[in-house]
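== Sequence entry ==
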Amino acid sequence: MIPMNDIQTLDHIEELFPNDFTEEQIAKAKTLFYKKISIAAHQFYGGKMQTLPKAPIYGFNWFNVWYTPGVSAVSTTIRDDNDRSFELSNRSNLVAVVSDSTRVLGDGDCTPPGGLGVMEGKAMLMKYLGGVDSVPLCIDSRDENGEHQADKLIEFVKMVQHSFGAVNLEDISQPNCYRVLDTLREACDIPVWHDDAQGTACVTLAGLINALKITGKKMSDIKAVLYGAGAANTTIARLMITDGVKPENIIIFDTKGTLHSGRTQYREDKRFYRKWELCLSTNPQHIETHEEAFKDADVLIALSKPGPDTIKPEWISLMADKSIVFVCANPVPEIYPYKAKEAGAYIVATGRGDFPNQVNNSVCFPSILKGTLLVSARKITDSMAIRAAHSIADFAERQGLSTEHIMPTMMDSDLFPTVAADVAMQAIHDGVARKTRTWQEVYDIAKHDIDETHTLARLFEQQGFIQEFPEEEIRRIVREACEAVRS
């Protein structure tokens, strides 16, 4: 029997599965279980975020302080110096999570409100892991013909930026995602971060750094296959090249084949300028087949269509000795880890926390945004993302590396203030910080805010302000998932 607290925490949940389940059945049952319990838990709690005051109301007249007539002085002070808004409001610790919900996880266009589950999830992780407040904003980017327009997102963010300290873009389909990010990074006076692109690239680079340490291979020597050419992998390629991978040793697949200079449709369609840049710099041999691409490849980074049959075992078997396989599609990896290992992979990582080596942007974006906010940076540079990647990799190395441990997890609470401080120092070095603080000052503030959030969350649970999710409901959902896998 699993102890009650382990059921509540969902630790060792697979022990509730039938003993005769195969590895494939266990993997499928876990996926079904997490989807079903997600619906049940969101229904039970009515979502997962709320708004609470951070200042006291000692008596009736304090309404006159926090609102009219007293607050008039705040308005005119900020009118005369807009930067005071970071001191006189919650702006300095507030992020807008903006999406048009056109590429939600691996589920495609979910309509604007369909993105709320993920955007609320971002807000929850940002607060719990980084001590950062945020607001999910799912908008309709369609024109009168029903086409999604980058300009609608750009104009919305430019208009709303004055209420926030930073913007986190999320789940925006290509090609709009490229132009939206690149335009807003230059147009806005606050940092704009696209987590699907920059966040995923940051953690992937971190995982790759440590996987290469274990295998004894060098960034400058590896042959890499990137499967998928969306916002994530195109940015991953850029950061990998910046950090030492030779572009001629990279082969990138999109839905139509490999990228190379012969794919001139991307030259003609200016919306895909990021893809065209990679067509010109990677795969000079114009390799086009899976067999030739995967032959002797040291690294596979897949961020494409959810699996489990997107990446074939026979492709992995063609890879070099001690091959590194990152299959990070959500909610189901392109191939299950056990199958990748059977095919010869030495190190396997996914985007999920229920398999070893989770390479997921949740270990980077809360701390990157916290560090950025604490020095009031105007933008998040590529060098800040690369610094975060090395900080994450170093943290995991101090814990001890192995083929089953190349990354820290979301439960490593000291990771987040550490990365926040490193990112803040890089922002100061890059000249994009409005405010100067020491490494220790940033670390201490971030740690205090994160610890305070944890304390408040525990207090809410202990005092019953957050209800306990029923144990029997968890057991029922496990049974339901297992029955679905058997049928």
Notes: The beta strands are 94-99, 133-138, 166-169, 192-194, 224-227, 250-254, 257-258, 299-302, 324-327, 347-350. The first helix runs from residue 4 to 9.
